[in-house]
Amino acid sequence: MDAFLSRTYYLNGGYDNKEGMSKLNSRMEQIEAGYPANRIFYLSVPHEALADVASSLADNAQTKKGWNRIIIEKPFGFDAVSSQLFTKSLLSKFEEKQIYRIDHLLGRNLIENLTVILSEDLSMPLGRYFDGYGVIRDIIHSHILQTIALLAMEPPISLDGEDIRNEKVKVLRSIRNLEPSDVILGQYKATSGDKVDVSLSSRTPTFFAAALYIDNARWDGVPFMIKAGVGLIKHRVEIRIQFNSVPGNLYRERIGHNTHLATNELILRDEPDEAILVKINNKIPGLGLNLDASELNLLYKDKYNVEVPDSYEHLLLDVIDGDNHLFLRSDELAAAWNILTPVLQWIDQNNIAPELYELGGRGPVGSYYLWAKHGVWWADD
C-alpha cells in the first residue's frame, strides 16, 4: 500500500480549466520522463460536470506517445435527450474505442454478473443521488438491461469486445415497448428509526418489476421477469431460468408440494453465495412413487479456494487490456434509453405514485399479480 500511495499525487485541475488540465499534462509528462506511455482518465465527478471535464481533458491532457482511454461512472444521462447530448459531446472529442462507461456490478465474478433478479442490501445509504435518479435509472438502465443482453444474445463470431457488443445491441433493439400494465413501482415505508435514508421524495421508486419480451426468433413469447429493489427481505443477486413443464405431465398428481416449486430451474447466483444451482424433480426414496424438488449445488466457496477479485479490479484491468465487452457502447446506451424513456414519461405525465411496501418485506403486492399474469413464479424461498 505504501508503495502504491507513494505514486499518487493530487492536483486541483478544476472542471473546465485549461490551465489546470495543462498542469496535469505537465505533471504526467514529468513522471513519464519522455518514454512512450498510455493514459487512462477515470472521471468520478458530478454528472453535470462530466462534459466540461472530458472536453478539457481531451484538449489539454491527452498523451501523443501512446493511447488515451476515458472511464465514465454512472449515471449515463437522466433521460434519452440528456444522454444523447452528452454522447454527442464525448464523441466530438474522443473516438468510441476510447470511451469506457463503467458499471461495477457488471464486473462481478459469476458469469460477469448475469443478474436479472436483484435486491440491494436494505442498509445501503441512498442519499441525494438515488433520490434524483431512482431505481429505474440507477439499476434497471444499466445493470439489468445489460444482464438481459448478455444472457439473451446470439453467440458472437468471436470473443472480441466489439463482436460481443454487436450482439448485445441487437437484443436491446429487439425488446418490445414496455406496457404500463406490465410495470410495478414501489417505495419502502421508511421511518426516522430505520437505517435506510428516509429523505426520498414520495415519487422516487425504490422497487421496480416488469415483464419484458424480446421480439426475435429465439425468444418469441418468452417473458423476462425483472425485479430490483431496496429494503427487501433478502439480499440476492441472481438469474433464474425456469423451464416450461412438459405438456400432459404424467407425474403431476405425484408432486408432493406446490406445483410452482416443481418447475425445473437453472440458477446462476452471485449473492449471498456464489453458486450455480440446478433444481430438478426426483423420486423420493422408498416404495412409493412420489416426487420432490432437489437442488444440485455448485457452491464456489466450497469448490474453489481462491481470492475473488473485486468487481472494480476486474473492470479496470479490462480497461488496461482494451477489453470493452462489459462497457456500454453509445448505441447500446441509446437502445437502453429507448426502452425506458416511454415508461419514465408515462410515470411523469400521469403523476404515478409507487406502491408502498414494508421495509424488510417482500416488496409490492402488485409484483405477485404480475407474475401470475405472465405465468412466471417469483422465487422467494
From TrEMBL:
Signal sequence range: none
SUPFAM superfamilies: Glyceraldehyde-3-phosphate dehydrogenase-like, C-terminal domain (SSF55347), NAD(P)-binding Rossmann-fold domains (SSF51735)
Pfam families, per database record: G6PD_C (PF02781)
Keywords: Carbohydrate metabolism, Glucose metabolism, NADP
Glucose-6-phosphate dehydrogenase C-terminal domain residues: 104-378
Listed GO biological process terms: glucose metabolic process; pentose-phosphate shunt
Domain of life: Eukaryota
GO molecular function, one term: NADP binding
Family assignment from sequence similarity: Belongs to the glucose-6-phosphate dehydrogenase family.
This protein's name: Glucose-6-phosphate 1-dehydrogenase 4, chloroplastic-like isoform X1
